[in-house]
Amino acid sequence: MSGLDWAVFAVYFGGVVGFALWQSRKNVGVEGYFLANRRLPWGAIGLSVMATQASAITFIGTTGQAFDDGMEFIQVYLPQPLVMILLCVVFVPFFYRAKVYTAYEYLEGRFDAKTRSLTSFLFLVSRGLAAGIVLYAPAIVLSVIMGWDEKVTILIMGVITIAYTMAGGITAVIWTDVVQMLMMFVGIAAALVILFGTLPPEVGVGDVVYIGGIQQMWSSIDWSWDPTNTYTIWSGMIGGFFLALAYFGTDQSQVQRYLTAKSLRSSRLSLIFNAFLKLPMQFAILSIGVLLFVFYHFERPPLLFNSAEVTMVHESERGAEFQRLELEHGDVHSLRREATLELLDARSSGDDLTALQQRIGEYDGQLSGLRSDAKAIVSDVRGASSNDVNYVFPSYLIRYVPAGVLGLMIAVIFAAAMSSLDSELTALSSATVVDFYKRYVRRSADEAHYLLASRIATFFWGLFACGVALYAGRLGSLLEAVNQVGSFFYGSLLGVFVLAFLVKKATGDGAFWGLLAGMLAVFIVSVTTDISYLYYNVVGTFTVLGVGTLFSRFADRPEAAT
Hints:
There is one protein chain. The chain folds into two domains: 3-297 and 398-473, Sodium/glucose cotransporter (Up-down Bundle); 313-386. Helix content is 77%, strand content 0%. The chain has 21 helices and no strands. The protein has helices at 3-23, 29-35, 42-53, 56-69, 80-98, 103-110, 113-145, 150-198, 205-214, 233-250, 252-258, 264-295, 307-314, 319-349, 354-382, 392-400, 405-441, 447-469, 478-502, 508-528, 536-554. Helix 1 (3-23) crosses helix 8, helix 1 runs parallel beside helix 17 (405-441) and helix 13 (307-314) crosses helix 15 (354-382). It is globular, with a radius of gyration of 24 Å. The N and C termini lie far apart (60 Å).
């Protein structure tokens, strides 16, 4: 990074944090710390909802995913507009009118204390793990760009995020999200412009679409009915629907957002805002990954994008073998580049393209095979699987993005990571204090005491996230890692809330045992079948509904108050 990059990074990053803390000056007590005294506008909440989900993983993991697999991941996001409408109609009114601090607090009034505690505990486990993965993402960027040790980076970012979250609470978090989200839009546009600008002058937009289409990188819809295939229209519309409904409807990091609104109408507007913008944004980010795939048809890509892993292998006993793969990879790339340019010439002249398309497809297959061989060597030397997919976009940034713009892009990724982490910390601390400490440990205390407890909880979960982050590099694709962790829990949590909202005769015991049955069902399915993790959400939801309804109906238990 140049001096200009550092200056841009420092000004932007410092300005975002300073602005967020200034906005939090009106916070009063615990309600101010966790809910901003229920006074925030719907636009800020809507951008915050987007930003909480659009972490640094969105830039790093999603682009890498698209580089390897094309646009297929967009299928997971197709049901989100419908999900947002359903949340506005069913979920939001229950939470808002109950005047609760956490989503799980509502469950005690509807069912009982043990159901509230179990759901909150499962949230703490799942999002505590996810927070660590979110924190690990920007460490990847710095390891590639500046050669910093990932562990040091994790600790530095963790400390900074913990500090301003403890100071400013949810208000600082949401206003940080607002600025971060606006800059992410700028970053997406800048990345697309730069990618097109670094292509050969003779390569136009139509050529980019055509080259990506040869390998079906732009194909976003897979109609095959294969439950083991993670990304199909069916897994997206069914499994993705339940995943999104559970995340936005039962996850405290999201529910907490729309509980800060001035009114029920504002809460609903924030989600409708998200419904219309999230899908186009995700499409644009995935397009960056596909454009990188096309770009490296003309520029020689590294055999592996993780420079640290490459250096490690070069210094190992298998270094000579790896170097032979690099040489072969370079030779095959040269052949593919020549064939691609020849294809574009033939395309403009109207010649038959079948033979050239087949040649390019063969070269793509050879390059993919060489990358797989290289990853196998890394796995052998490293003792863990290669996480190269997460380094595709950072590697491009450091090699091709001009000074100043590079600093801005890095600042955007940093802010994205920290905005997602601070969101997780406020949600985790609110559930810890409201659902456990205030409920079981200290039932009666003044505002100052609970505010101190809230800040201590924020500090604890920040340290926990740092600990998880130190091992997140072993999880492969960060994007899939987050979704997989969530899918083990979300379906069952969703089932409990659906019971609460729609099944009037459901009892606390029914909800509790249904939740345990749902978790058990997801575990059994995960170890005995190869179905996509997206379907875990469906299994968990319907198991909870079935067991919870039957138990409530036939067990000798009193009905819960509605």
